[in-house]
Amino acid sequence: MEKKVGIIGAGISGLLACKYILSKGYTPVVFESRSGAGGVWVNTFQTTKLQTPKSYFQFSDFPWPSSVKDDWPDHSQVLDYIESYARHFDLVGHIKFNSRVAGIEFEGATDEELQAWELWGGNGEPFGPEGKWRITVENTQTLSTEVYLVDFVILCVGRFSDVPNIPVFPPGKGPEVFQGNVIHSMDYSAIDFQTAAQLIKGKRITIVGNMKSGLDIAMEAAAANGVEYPCRMLYKTKHWSLPDYQPWGIPLPYLYFNRFSELLIHKPGEGFLLSLLATILSPLRWVFSRIVESHIKRKLSLDKFGMVPEHSFFKEISSCFITTMPKGFYDSVEKGSIILKKASEFSFCKEGIMADDESAVLETDLVILATGFKGDKKLKDMFVSPAFKDCIFGSSTASIPLYRQCIHPRIPQLAVIGFSESISNIHTSEMRCWWLAELLDGTFKLPSIKEMEKEGEKWDKYMKRYSKEHYRRSCISILHIWYNDQLCKDIGVNPKRKKGFFADLFQPYGPLDYNVS
Asked: Which of 42, 97, 331, 376 has the fewest CB within 10 Å, making it most exposed?
């Protein structure tokens, strides 16, 4: 009997899910609210480039074209690459564009029955004998609504789009009292490049936030206005942004993307020997971190600009906060076309912004909030059921409770792909889609609900240990090989992807190591 799988989102994760589901003979239906595939790469800033070298941002069975020479392709090249992948594997015909999912609702067991289950879905199977998901879809052009019934749902909604994180202000101190304009970086990326250039030209601009979006917009504003109208950037925390991936001539992957680097980390479910080894080798974490920090400080002259972070690079990469510094950023700071200002909090007034408790007004025409997104809220709002909303969100004092970062033990016939972060989200999503396709095909079975929840608690402990206050990001960057090992063992393939003991221990792991085609 035909099994229909609903996939929500046609970004990278959604396309991968579609491809792997098709490989097992199932019928995928992909719902995408935009008019094209590519996710966050559909709407970008003009200066946006890839954040990781393209060798780490690629599909395992679809290499970059030889025409792309730069290790850091720009936004148009990345989108072309993703669209070429979709065409090559005939995925486009399975996508319903301009189709916004208003909500999903499970039809089958009651909430009481779900809570009584000992196995996922009641019987441990991915497809229940009676359960179905009802997906309500709104056409964004005609505003008509259609309902689809599917046997399984894969949520590929991402965490960096659609639901902006807007700061909350006391009454009388928010954007409503400001005579200028306030937009989110999401709004800026949604307009065409020419309109964006006109928006920022000849204006006093304040950007709130100093992660990748904020850095890119600041560079565009500095290029447009120079020192006549310098762009001001407010930030809470200083970050270790990479000028390149070659600290002191050492490729960064040799410090963080191989098995040896993971021996320095305490891992979820590790045995006594691995735990002892991680403790003995832990000083090397400090050494590796210092190597990268000293390189960044020297290359970007952070001491000169007072921008040396208080935390380590190790914490930065453990929390998936790694960004690549736009070329020439600190040159613009030195020239005066970008002004950096630390502010733990800010408020609005008629003429602009007031930072912290200072009385001086930072006169501004346009404020751009590069304050990120509420990915967990976006995930939660997919569900109609209050019980499932609570389940998927979990406790606010724990990471999102997903087994193998994909399956919620108490939500049947559903998987989440692309929410947990890593050093290369495209690679991690592909590994998860491969794992999920094998699960659906019966290659292996999941453990009991209690066992999955215990496994989730181990990963939560790991994330709190290394990501600290950023544990909700569910970052697996410094353990991506260990994580992939678990997926490979479940599937029944050899997790050791290199030839020879030393190669497997010291050579960096990347997407091409897992090509099984």
From this structure: 331
pTM of the model: 0.96
Non-local (6+) Cβ contacts of 381 within 8 A are 163, 389
| Residue type at position 124 | G
Please check whether residue 64 is in contact with residue 184, taking contact to mean a CB–CB distance below 8 angstroms: no
In angstroms and rounded to an integer, the radius of gyration of the C-alpha atoms of the chain is 23
17 SS3 class? helix
Judge whether residue 357 has pLDDT over 80.
Answer: no
Q: What residues have CB less than 8 Å from 274, skipping those under 6 apart? A: 263, 267
Residues in the chain: 517
Q: Which helix (H) or strand (E) holds 134?
A: strand 132-139
| Mean pLDDT over the full length of the chain | 95
Q: How far is CA 207 from CA 241, 357, 366, 371, 473, in A?
A: 17, 19, 8, 9, 23
494 touches 516 (CB < 8 A): no
Q: Among 219, 248, 225, 231, which residue's Cα sits nearest to residue 326?
A: 219
The whole-angstrom separation of Cα 109 and Cα 355 is 53
Structure tokens at 502: 């030393």
Q: What is the mean pLDDT of residues 343-371?
A: 92
Which pLDDT score is estimated for 517?
Answer: 62
Q: If residue 363 lies in a helix (H) or strand (E), which one and from where to where? A: strand 362-363
- Residues 201, 192: Cα–Cα separation, whole Å: 14
- In 172-321, DSSP assigns E strands to 181-184, 205-208, 231-235
Alpha-carbon distance of 287 to 326, in angstroms, equals: 26
